[in-house]
Here is the input.
Amino acid sequence: MNDGERKSAIKRTLRAWLNRLLSLREKQSPIDLQHLGRTLLHAIVVGAAAGLVSAAFSTAVERVQHWLLTSLAGYSFLRAAGERASEGAPGVFRPWLLVWLPALGAGLAGYIGHRFAPEVLGGGGNAAIRVFHKRDAITRKRVPWLKAIASILTLGSGGSGGREGPTMQIGSSMASLVARWLKTSPRERRILYVAGIAAGVSAVFRTPLGAALFAAEVLYRDDFESDALVPAVLASVVGYSVGLPFGESSRLFAHADSYPFVPGHLPFFAALALFEVALALTFLRALKTVRMVSGKMPGPVWMRPGYGGLALGILTVPLLFWLGTRLGRPGGGFGILGGGYGAAQVAITGADWLPGGWRGVQVLAALCALKLVASSFTLGTGGSAGDFAPSLVLGGLLGGAFGRATQLLTGDATINPGAFALVGMGTLFGGIAHVPLSSMVLVCELAGSYDLIVPLMLAEGIAFVALRRHHLYEAQPSSRSSAVETVRAQQSLRVGDLAQAQPGARTFGPATGGRAMLDAVGDATWQVTFPVLNETGKIVGVVPSKVLHVVASEEGMADWVVASDLMQEPMVARFDEPAIEVLTRMLAAGLRQIPVLNDQGQVAAYLDERSVASKLVVELPVASTLDATTTPLAGRSGQS
Here is the structure.
C-alpha cells in the first residue's frame, strides 16, 4: 500500500468512526434525537474549526499591522482595551510611507483575489449571505484561506475596515468544508453554515450570544433562520472558547460598571436615533458613490482596491498628522486606519488626550467624518475588509459626541456619554444591517449588563423603521418565503435570457497555429473559450484559454501545435435550454464560458458566468462585482 492509499484508508476510517460516534440511535425517543444529536455534535466540530481559524486570522492581522504600520511606518495604533497591544515601541514616524502602504496592500490583495478566487473580494458579509441562499450552501475549498490572505494584506497595511465581515465568510466557508467532509444533507449543511458564521464572529468579537443571534438574523431583512439558532448558539460558545486564548481580554471594550436607567433621558436617545439614521444614509451614499467612481477608473478590475488604498493614504494621513500634532499625539493613531475600535473605546470611556467641553465634541465628530471617508475608500473600491466594524465605530463616535453635547447643553451630570456611544453603535449597525435584535444583545454583551436595553429598544425601533428601504447587505432577501420564490423564478430562466452576443469574438480553424492562438488570447478582453469551426462553419471543438496558457509556458510548443491538437469536445447551449441546467454542466466541466448556437447550428452568442452572476442565486466561482472586461483567468474546478 503506497502513501496515497494509506492516507485514503485512514481518512475513511476516521470518517466512519466519527459518523458512528455522532449517530444517536435511540429509536424509542419521543423526538428525533438521531438527527438533532448529529447536528449539534457537528456544530461543535464547526465551532472549533471556524473559531480557531477566525481567531488565528485576527491575530495575524494584528501582527502584520504591527510589523508594517507600527515598526516600519512608525504609526502608533489606537486600540480598544480588549485588543492585543502591539509589542515594542513604534519606529520612526514615516508619513510618506504610510501614504503608500494601504495602496500596496489592497492592490496586492485585489490581484490575488481576482486571479485565484474573486468571490473573496469585498467585505465578506454579502458573499456569505449569498452562498447561504444557494440550494447546497457550498463554497470552494480555497475560499477561507484566500479570504484570510486578502484581508490580512488589506487590513494589515491600514485598510479602513473590520475583521468581522471577513470572519463571516471564513467561518461559514470552514463550516461548508466540514459539512462536505462529514457528508451531511443539504439542509444540515445550511444549518452548519449559519453555525460557522456565529463561531467566526464570536471568536473575534467576543459576544457569544449576540454572534449566534446575528448569524440567524442577518440572512434576511425581515425574517429569522430559527432552525439554525440552537446549533449556532452551541458553535458560538465553542468558537468563543477556542478564540479566547488569542485575545487579551474576554471583552473587547472597557466601560463603566453600570449605566443606570433614567426615564427622563429617553427623549435624548430618540433624538440620537434620528442623528444615527442621517449618518447611516450618508455612509451608504458614500459607499455607492465610491463604487460608481471606481468602476470608471482605468486599468484592470483588480487595481480598484489599490486606488482606494491610495486615496485613503493621500487624504487621511496628512489630516491625521495635523490632528496628532494639535492633540499632542504625533504619529499616533485615531482609529481611522484599520478597524477603528480604539476610536469607539475613546467615545465610550474618553482618553487623557481627548479635550473636555465642546472641543472634545468637535474631535469626536471630526473622527467620525474621517472614518466615514476612509471606510468608503476601502469598502467602496472592493477592498477585502469588513463593513461590520466601521458601522459600529461610526455609530459609537457619533453617539459619544452627541452624549457629550447633550451633557453640556443640559448641564445634567447623570448623563453618561459612554451610554450614548454604546447605544449609537447598536442603532446604526442594527438599522442598516437589519439586525435589530442581535445588535441589541451585542451591545449589552459589550456593556457587560442589560442596563441599556430600554434605550436600545427605543433607538433601534426608530432606526429600523426609518431605514427599511436601505441596506448594507444587498444579498439579503426580505424573508424565507421571498427567497424561495426567487429561486423558483430563476429556475424558469432560459439561456436566451442570459446569453450575450459579444462583438469581436475570435474563432479558430482546425489548422490554426499556436502563435495565432496565443495572439488571440492576448488581444481578448472578455473571451476565454474559443470555438473551432470546420470549413462549413460548424463547431467541432473548443479551446479554453487555460490550455493556451500551458502552451505559452512551454518553450517552443507554440511553433508546432495546432488547434485540432488542443481542442476538446464542444460543450454548447441552445437558446431555449434551462439556464440553471446549462450553467451546472458548464461549471462541472471546468469551463467559464460556452458558445450558444442558433437554429442553424452556428455560434450566435456566449453564455458567460459573469453575465449571470448578478441574476442567479447560485454562487459562481467569479464574484458578481466583476465586469465583462475582466482579464481571463486560469481555469478552475468547482471543487478547488
